[in-house]
Amino acid sequence: MAAKAVVFHAAILAATFVGAPAVAQTNDPNLSQKQIDCLSRTTAAGADCDKDGGGQSGAGNAVGGAVFLPSLIVDLFPNSPARPTPAPTQPAPPKSPTSTAAPAPPPSGPVTSPTGLNVVAPPRAVSGEFVPDEVLVTVAGDAGAVQQIATTFGLQVRSQRQSRLLGTTLVRYGIPDGRPVGVVLAQLAADGRTQRREPNHIYSLQQAAGIVNYAFERIALDSKQASGENVRVAVIDTGIDGTNPALKGVIADQFDAMPNVPIKKRDHGTSVDGLIAGVGALEGIAPGAKIYHARAFEGGKSSMDVILSALDWAAEQDVRIINMSFVGPKNDLLGTACRNARALGMVLVAAAGNNGPKAPYGYPAAFDGVIAVTATDAKDGLMTQANRGAYVFLSAPGVEMVAPSGTGSDVVTGTSFAAAIVSGAIANLIHAAPDRSADEIEKALAATAKDLGPKGRDNDFGYGLLDIKAAGAAKK
Question: Which of 166, 150, 148 is nearest to 158 (CA)?
């Protein structure tokens, strides 16, 4: 009997990552400049700060070098039934890859925050989980402009690269002095060379705890006729177990978007790849498809910078489908990358989320042009912990299915795996009709889905259960 699937809903990053600086931080837009200075310990009036804290109660003060989480990171899914108690000290998120198009040298000395910086917009109250001492910025200009911005705003250039999908230079700036992310974003808006400014948000894989793969029957696909032969599918996920027999000959290429973080878990990515294109006893929905696998998660977590790196790599592989079985907050950079990938003709498939009916919309699934997939069981019932919302596009099997894993095989449940079923099904459509466009595929899936909820599209099942036979027969 396979072991139960690992639950990837840890709300805070694993302790294997290096700790971030212990500095007080808040994203409260109502703080005065003196209060922000006191929290950042940049004011010379240290005694005054010590008397009244320099800020409002609950703003998050550093005591004995400790930083308290409630003032640092907003829980992405406050209604999640498995919400953990915050730890008393700040855990660190995974570090983004340091490969760059024009690497910047590390700071030669301490970086100090300049005085008199303009805040041209109200400091943002940043929602969702994010790296507390970093911002992502697209910059118009060369490496010199990137460094000038860093010097002007007291930041560190931690990485920079030319992004294909964003069409510009993406820079990951570090905030060495503890200024809140929302304040730094507002300050950077004063420089016209900064085009987009976003937090480095954290995203989570969508696997739920979880018994035979009933997906073929439920989506009306004959397993003997199923084929995704030579269709190129990108998967952005954890590391994989390349020795698993189900993946023999399946992986066309791999990319590690976080090479400095050791691989400890391989289950989720192995299951997703296997459900799409597995061979042998655990045959996937699209046998013969070629998987281009980008490792971008560890401990169930990743950052926006890492994910964007993986997306750029996927776009360079000339893939037809990108599977994104993860969820996080809305981020304009991710939205732009998805929109541009779709414009290049790629079909984007994403997990709707496993965080319950009251959870906020999950991204990238909720972006226009992304097929948001929810999970159903062997009787077409909705997975209880699935997200709900107008963005849900399609339903597919994703509850208690057998899939390959890092330990051989396992029973898996989650919208992650429903997304994999849809990606495999779309590979079948493309194999049968290679000239079908992403728009035509999306319309066919919507028009032929089996209605499961209220008549028409609804917030629980979307258009309904995937019917690949009907979608294949639909006219363009």
Answer: 150
Q: 350: which 2 tokens?
A: 């994403």
Cα–Cα distances in Å, from 231 out to 289, 317, 320? 5, 12, 7
Predicted confidence band of residue 208 (pLDDT cuts 50, 70, 90) = low
Alpha carbons 270 and 468: distance in angstroms, whole number = 24
d(CA 27, CA 130): 12
Rg of the chain in Å (alpha carbons): 23
pLDDT band at 449 (very low <50, low <70, confident <90, very high): very high
Q: Under a CB-based contact definition with an 8 Å cutoff, are residues 346 and 382 in contact?
A: no
SS3 for 465?
Answer: strand
On the question of pLDDT at 297 being above 50, the answer is yes
Task: Check: CB of residue 73 under 8 Å from CB of residue 204.
Answer: no
How far apart CA 208 and CA 284 sit, in angstroms, is: 20
Residue with tokens 């046998």: 287
Residue 152 burial class via C-beta count within 10 angstroms: exposed 0-12, middle 13-18, buried 19 and up: middle
Active site residues: 237, 268, 416
Residues 276, 423: contact at Cβ < 8 Å? yes
Residue 222: other Cβ atoms inside 10 A: 10
Q: Which tokens go with 165? A: 């999908």
CA-CA distance, 263 to 279, in Å (whole number)? Answer: 24
What token pair was written down for 164?
């294909």
Question: Is the C-alpha dihedral spanning 467, 469, 475, 476 positive or negative?
Answer: positive
Q: How far apart are the first and last CA of the chain?
A: 45
- Amino acid of residue 80: S
Other C-beta atoms within 10 Å of 3: how many? 12
User: How far, in Å, CA of 457 to CA of 460, rounded?
Assistant: 9
pTM above threshold 0.85: no
Give yes or no for residue 51 having a pLDDT over 60: no
Instruction: Please tell me the predicted confidence (pLDDT) of residue 116.
Output: 72
3-state secondary structure of 196: strand
Cis ω for the linkage preceding 364 (within 30 of 0): yes
Q: Which helix (H) or strand (E) holds 291?
A: strand 290-295
Better-scored residue on pLDDT, 37 or 366? 366
Q: What is the pLDDT of residue 170?
A: 97
